[in-house]
Amino acid sequence: MPTDAERDERLASVLHVLYLIFSEGYSSSVGEALNRPDLSNEAIRLTRMLHAQLPSDGEITGLLALMLLTDARRLARTGPHGELIPLDEQDRTKWDQRLIAEGTALVSAAFAGGLIGSYQLQAAIAAVHDRAERAEDTNWRQILELYTTLDAIAKNPMVRLNRAIAVAMVEGPARGLELVNALDVDGALEGHYRLDAVRAHFYEMSGDDARAIESFRAAARRTASIPERDYLEMKAAKLASKRR
């Protein structure tokens, strides 16, 4: 049998793999389909099995909650032709309230243990999004607080990018751009399409359409997901037609 330290290390690896499987299923990194339910459903099934074996483990509970709260939005993420619909434009009546209720209860249970980990915090962020009946009702200050705590734990460049979005929603796009530019200097996300995509949204928010178009097109060139590429190109085209 492994020692406690070995068990914890192995469990962390298992959770990371399950998280990656779910993430690829929910938002496929390549190809014509935005998501692969076969992968995300399997990740949820396996995580449920793990949670049944170790129900008091806060990070397992947090990961399951994160998956359920995220998967609850899946049907609203695509249009009739498989096109991407961003979170702020989704028909929230299509969100699965059963999964949201289950995920929210799991978040509460995960935090009851006292020790807080990254999956618990990500689940809490997902719960804040899911509680908002409209995009404009989203509690971005609470999300920013959670991302700030998560950033202190995870030390992950993608977390810092997501935190920049929350900062922009609370403090304005100029501050968000400062943080994105700092990630450019850091280089950890060099070449990743999401860096350009987030930058493009901030430029659009600030009214700098020319730079937004440039960044949307740069992001479109870098993604291998066709729905992502089409969405980014559509955003650039709409801004370009507005400038004519």
The residue ranges in which pLDDT falls below 50 over 5 or more consecutive positions are none
Mean pLDDT: 95
Structural class: mainly alpha
Percent helix range: over 70%
Q: What number of structural domains do the residues give?
A: 2
- Beta-strand segment tally: 2
Main sheet strand line-up: 1-2
Number of helices: 11
Q: What is the element string, with H for helices and E for strands?
A: HEHHHHHHHHHEH
Inertia-based shape: globular
In terms of DSSP E residues, the strand content is under 5%
Radius of gyration (CA) equals 18 Å
| Cα distance spanning the termini | 69 Å
Largest sheet: 2 strands, parallel
Describe this structure in words.
The protein has helices at residues 4-26, 37-53, 58-71, 97-112, 118-131, 140-154, 157-171, 173-186, 193-206, 209-222, 226-243; strands spanning 30-31, 224-225. The protein folds into two domains: 1-138, no CATH class; 153-244, Serine Threonine Protein Phosphatase 5, Tetratricopeptide repeat. The chain is globular. The protein is built from eleven helices and two strands. It has 244 residues and is mainly α. A two-stranded parallel ribbon has the order 1-2. Helix 6 (140-154) runs antiparallel to helix 7. It starts with a helix and ends with a helix.
Keywords:
about 240 residues, mainly alpha, Serine Threonine Protein Phosphatase 5, Tetratricopeptide repeat, 2 domains, 11 helices, about 70% helix
Task: Describe the secondary structure blueprint for this structure.
Blueprint: H1 4-26, E1 30-31, H2 37-53, H3 58-71, H4 97-112, H5 118-131, H6 140-154, H7 157-171, H8 173-186, H9 193-206, H10 209-222, E2 224-225, H11 226-243
Parallel strand pairs: 1-2
